[in-house]
Amino acid sequence: MARSRAAYEYTEAEDKSMRLGFLLIAAGLLSLLGLGCCWLRPALQERGGGGSANCTVLAVRQLGERFACTFSCGAACRGTARYPCLQVLVRTSRSSAPALLHEDERQLRTNPKCSYIPPCARDDQENSENVTYKQKYWKEKVGSQPFTCYFNQHLRPDDVMLKRTHDETVLLHCFLWPVVTFLVGVLIVVLTICAKSLAVRAEAIKRKKH
């Protein structure tokens, strides 16, 4: 009995391998739990009431109101500048009511009143020029041409997005890598146990022969 117990005792290398496997299993499970609660579930909720549609520009205008943005000019250099508010009103193929277009969900959360937030420059004039360029783009280059937009009737019925932040690829990677980590951990543990079991059996057969 003592010999059997000694045979099944793991070496230092095998013990480290088992610990690594269990660590990966725990990391995979915690990642799935954390991403599911903090990121995946809200993303699916945003997509749950949404879909795609064809949008057509109705009006492009700048409001008199200006908004603040924060620029960075070095490690310890930060400041505040201002930019004009550009609104792009569109009509979707799902509804005749006008909707306000946004770049994506992140821009919508940052400034729900405007359709575009320029890269924040130190000079207010440069920010204004960027917004004016975007205004000309929607007026002259897009014009009345239909384009694909995305909406969510439950969360934002009066807003549409030009692109979705939480697309299928991001959601796939959000789920894939924790699962891969979990499976690698399981594989390490199983292979370590199998290798130990085979080594014990080989040792037992060797003793019987002698």
The main sheet orders its strands as 1-2-3-5-4
How many helical elements?
Answer: 5
Structural class: alpha+beta
Please trace the helix and strand order, writing H or E for each element: HHEEEHHEEH
Helical amount among residues, as a percent range? 40-55%
Number of domains: 2
Mean pLDDT: 81
Oligomer: single chain
Distance from first to last alpha carbon? 19 Å
The low-pLDDT segments are 1-6
Characteristics:
210 residues; alpha+beta; 5-stranded mixed β-barrel; 5 strands
Summarize the structure.
With 210 residues, the protein is of the alpha+beta class.
Q: Could you explain the architecture of this structure?
A:
This protein is an alpha+beta fold. A 5-stranded mixed barrel has the order 1-2-3-5-4. The chain folds into 2 domains: 49-165, no CATH class; 167-209. The longest helix has 42 residues, at 168-209. It has helices spanning 2-7, 12-48, 105-110, 124-142, 168-209; strands spanning 50-74, 77-92, 95-102, 147-152, 156-161.
Please outline the helices and strands.
Elements: H1 2-7, H2 12-48, E1 50-74, E2 77-92, E3 95-102, H3 105-110, H4 124-142, E4 147-152, E5 156-161, H5 168-209
Helix pairs in contact: 2-5
